[in-house]
């Protein structure tokens, strides 16, 4: 995980500071970038950083897997559904009720699937709490990139509740 995160960060650093690399990167991946990612780290780098931090902090495999899946699946579904079918705006002009619902339902599905996998040991009710927190983080208009906050805050919350309830 460390090596993967390092590779992502090095590529992003080079892309941001060396124009020929930036040009090649934009040709290859420009259509996948959000407007703000042309001048800052990509979502992939934030995902790798969050994964590295979470794997170092949380020994519980289920909490780690859920927190990263909430970002990978939930945030992606929120964007896909919100951008294509979103009509009811919430908090900001960029977030919709439809996207929020897609995020929550997909995170609940992730929680359920992890709860039935052998050797994961993530109780569904703990995953459900994490799904709610991940969805809340996704819709709030926060300054910190949600690719860092969703896995970190949902994992912390699940760890707290798992400790309290078991």
Summed up:
The chain has 166 residues and is mainly α. The protein has one domain.
Task: Please describe what this structure looks like.
The protein is globular and about 55 Å long. 74% of the residues lie in helices and 2% in strands. The chain has one domain (2-165). The model has no long low-confidence stretch (mean pLDDT 92). Helix 5 packs antiparallel against helix 6. It has helices at residues 2-17, 19-29, 43-57, 61-85, 97-116, 124-139, 146-165; strands at residues 89-90, 95-96. It is built from 7 helices and 2 strands, in the order H-H-H-H-E-E-H-H-H. A hairpin with a 4-residue loop joins strand 1 and strand 2 (95-96). A two-stranded antiparallel sheet has the order 1-2. The protein is mostly helical.
Present the secondary structure layout.
Elements: H1 2-17, H2 19-29, H3 43-57, H4 61-85, E1 89-90, E2 95-96, H5 97-116, H6 124-139, H7 146-165
Antiparallel strand pairs: 1-2
Brief descriptors of the model:
about 0% strand, two-stranded antiparallel sheet, about 75% helix, 7 helices, mainly alpha, about 170 residues
Report strand %.
Answer: under 5%
Strand order of the largest sheet: 1-2
Shape type: globular
| Cα-atom radius of gyration | 17 Å
Q: What is the number of strand segments?
A: 2
Low-confidence stretches: none
Termini separation: 29 Å
Mean pLDDT: 92
Count the DSSP helices: 7
Approximate helicity band:
over 70%
Sheet having the most strands: 2 strands, antiparallel
Work out the count of structural domains. 1
């Amino acid at each position: 995980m460390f090596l993967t995160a390092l590779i992502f960060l090095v590529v992003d650093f080079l892309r941001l500071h060396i124009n020929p690399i930036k040009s090649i990167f934009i040709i290859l991946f420009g259509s996948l970038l959000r407007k703000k990612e042309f001048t800052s780290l990509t979502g992939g780098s934030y995902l790798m950083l969050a994964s590295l931090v979470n794997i170092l902090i949380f020994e519980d495999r289920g909490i780690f897997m859920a927190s990263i899946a909430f970002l990978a699946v939930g945030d992606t579904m929120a964007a896909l559904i919100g951008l294509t079918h979103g009509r009811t705006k919430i908090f900001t002009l960029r977030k919709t009720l439809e996207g929020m619902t897609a995020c929550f339902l997909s995170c609940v599905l992730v929680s359920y699937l992890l709860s039935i996998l052998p050797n994961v040991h993530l109780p569904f009710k703990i995953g459900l709490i994490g799904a709610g927190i991940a969805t809340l983080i996704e819709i709030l208009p926060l300054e910190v990139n949600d690719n860092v906050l969703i896995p970190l805050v949902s994992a912390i919350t699940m760890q707290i509740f798992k400790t309290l309830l078991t």
